[in-house]
Amino acid sequence: MNSSAINRQILLASRPQGEPTVDNFRLVETPVPALAEGQVLVRNHYLSLDPYMRGRMNDGKSYAAPQPLDAVMIGGTAGEVVESRNANFKAGDRVVGMGGWQEYQLVDASQRGVLQKVDTTHIPLSAYLGAVGMPGVTAWYGLVKIIQAKAGQTVVVSAASGAVGSAVGQLAKARGARAVGIAGGADKCRYVVEELGFDACIDYKEHKDLKSLSAALKQACPDGIDGHFENVGGMILDAVLMRANAFSRVALCGMISGYNGEPIPLQFPQLLLSNRMSIEGFIVSEHMEIWPEALKELGTLVATGKLKYRETVAQGIAAAPEAFLGLLKGRNFGKQLVKLV
Amino acid sequence: MNSSAINRQILLASRPQGEPTVDNFRLVETPVPALAEGQVLVRNHYLSLDPYMRGRMNDGKSYAAPQPLDAVMIGGTAGEVVESRNANFKAGDRVVGMGGWQEYQLVDASQRGVLQKVDTTHIPLSAYLGAVGMPGVTAWYGLVKIIQAKAGQTVVVSAASGAVGSAVGQLAKARGARAVGIAGGADKCRYVVEELGFDACIDYKEHKDLKSLSAALKQACPDGIDGHFENVGGMILDAVLMRANAFSRVALCGMISGYNGEPIPLQFPQLLLSNRMSIEGFIVSEHMEIWPEALKELGTLVATGKLKYRETVAQGIAAAPEAFLGLLKGRNFGKQLVKLV
User: How far apart are CA A243 and CA A180, in angstroms?
Assistant: First the structure.
């Protein structure tokens, strides 16, 4: 590897009006510049695709600055150091970072936290973008800190076969709670119950209206719902509230059903009052203090085979936009990655 | 006083379909029975009318059992012991309890907490139904325990001139926060600012749509909203969310705008996520552990003239139904009472 290498990158070319398309992205090739002192060149092996990226494509007010136009799309990456002018890193080190949608990243590794060395002896490199990475810690924070799941309680999670949802349910089971998933399609629901060990899973595609979905939740949660981890919003959140117990808690992690601007009103907010519920939105990157504890539990569970996960892997950087659009439509099955090497 | 006295009572005669009317109530006269050992006969001087009573008139699932038909309407009362066969009470004691909509109550005062002696040396008897009673403690719990108001923050409260809302704003000011009220009409708003010392008050009757109300909130809350105490719901809650700051907190105490079955959807629940907000419904009677601390602060503030309040007083038990219907429409100004003596 040297500075004559070509780096293929995906830029945000335009902001989507409603549903994004591949035309919102542009593939470019740029030479990899020479390393300055303190810098590390990483070859990205895996690119993580995550729903939050949809929000960054918009220009509106949100918790994070918008993704700039004509710049490399942001995103988590896992890869290998190929060249280093930093004493803390050497060629061959496995690392995770926020390398973005590109094959190589050149980083000033003297900035604390920008690049993390990881041990792939017992944990696959890609898992550091999923169960032992941001999605896993997201699941842990919502379940442990907001829902505060306890043995004997019932916890529901939407997008249950996804990177976050699958960890939520398994962490709930590890705490002695009943775990009920909501996912799209019979295959995903079978996987959630048979492979991941959830107690039940509801295929939302089988329930076109609120009454039907609420009835399915009643059947799957005979003792009501004590905690809910929300990744989807819309009708799912309405249905959960209709089955929620007194003092139940909702961790609001995502509302993918409204990411393209669809109206997703909460129909009966008065249930928050009559059930004395709490609902809390969160972004896991604002709670760095819990990452070590969460990663320790998640890493141990993955290394010992007790926390299972599934990956959908697109091949090559050029496939990233299509794979991302598929993720927004739920076409992935488990953690969506792009394999670059 | 003796057992030949006549007790006039208001019963729930029928459940309202939508908006209640006076026909849902019935006035009856019953003789006061003779006292058994341990009992106390109280002549109620004041009856408290509160929005929560509307919910009890319904038969549906809620946090409390429905008010039974053909039974005395529940409600807080303040009065005087007129006869006692209980060693802990004597004629002349001033007491508060849950005597209901009636002139006399006969209570087994050996049940702990059913009747509380109060000191009217520095605090008027009626205040124990308002600022130094359930409404005051409700304000205190939501502001101190849920909103966790701090100096320099901005706190908004709806129904700001009411028994709860007026205490919320004054307690927020006492903590160094900016207090912004929402109330119905210029008179109430003037009172909230000029008499109660709020920093600003918005007349919701001047703002017929969400855009207008949100713009008024922006003007009244130039640094955004850090805490909101909700008594009304509907468009007010939507408008507050549009001006809410990151990590802001909503104490959900009441949603009077939907008490007659009106739809009150929350239009943009995604703001809870993008602002990493929390919203929590509560019922103050489920948090008895905080009453002593809250009542101590509230009592001191009222006795020293630092916590102001206003009362609307209807005369005589027969006036209770009309007064209650007026309360639901915001016709009262401050705490709604019925004076019986």
Answer: 13
Helix B291-303 and helix B163-174, axial crossing angle in degrees, nearest 10: 80
Contact B278 A279 (CB under 8 A): yes
CB contact under 8 A, A266 and B264: no
Query: Is A269 at the interface with chain B, CB within 8 A?
Result: yes
The band of B110, judged by pLDDT with boundaries at 50, 70 and 90, is confident
Distance of CA B319 to the CA centre of its chain: 19
d(CA A222, CA A158) in angstroms, rounded, equals 18
**Alpha helices by DSSP H, chain B:** 52-56, 134-140, 163-174, 186-190, 210-220, 235-242, 270-274, 291-303, 320-328
At position B296, the amino acid (one-letter code) is K
Residues of A in contact with B254 (CB under 8 A): 273
Domain regions of chain B by residue span: 6-130+309-339, 134-285
Strands A200-203 and A178-183: parallel
Degrees to nearest 5, angle at CA B82 with B79 and B85: 120
A13 touches A24 (CB < 8 A)? yes
**DSSP state for residue A148 in the 8-state scheme:** -
Chain B residue numbers touching A276 (CB-CB < 8 A): 63, 280-283, 286
Tokens 């629940």 sit at which residue?
Answer: B269
**Backbone angles phi and psi of B255, in degrees to 5:** -140, 65
Q: Give the Cα separation of B58 and B67 in Å (integer).
A: 8
Class for the domain spanning B134-285: alpha beta
B157 Cβ neighbours under 8 A, 6+ residues apart? B165, B168, B169, B172, B179, B180, B181, B182, B228, B229, B231
DSSP string, A58-112: S-S--SSPPPPTTSBPP--EEEEEEEE-STT--TT-EEEE---SBSEEEEETTST
CATH of region A6-130+310-339, choose from 3.90.180.10, 1.10.510.10, 3.20.20.60, 3.40.50.720: 3.90.180.10
Q: Does B334 contact A at CB distance below 8 Å?
A: no
Task: Tell me the chain A residues in contact with residue B280 when contact means C-beta distances shorter than 8 Å.
Answer: 272, 276-279
- Checking ipTM against 0.95, whether it exceeds it is no
Nearest to B108 by CA among B45, B36, B9, B43: B36
Q: Are A104 and A81 in contact (CB under 8 A)?
A: no
Q: What is the rounded CA–CA span in Å between residue A339 and residue A189?
A: 26
Sign of CA dihedral A256, A257, A262, A267: negative
Q: Which CATH architecture has domain B6-130+309-339?
A: Alpha-Beta Complex (3.90)
8 Å CB contact of A272 and B252: yes
Classify residue B137 by its DSSP letter.
H
| A250 — pLDDT class (breaks 50, 70, 90) | very high
User: How far apart, in Å, are the Cα atoms of B53 and each of B11, B139, B324?
Assistant: 13, 18, 9
pLDDT at A112: 82
B interface test, pick of A63, A272, A277 with most B CB neighbours within 10 Å: A272
pLDDT category at A17 given cuts 50, 70, 90 is: very high
Average pLDDT over residues B198-211: 97
Q: Which two tokens stand for residue A83?
A: 């060249």
* A152 close to B (CB below 8 A): no
Q: Do domains B6-130+309-339 and B134-285 have the same CATH topology?
A: no
Residue B301 reports pLDDT greater than 80: yes
Residue of B nearest to A64 (CA): B274
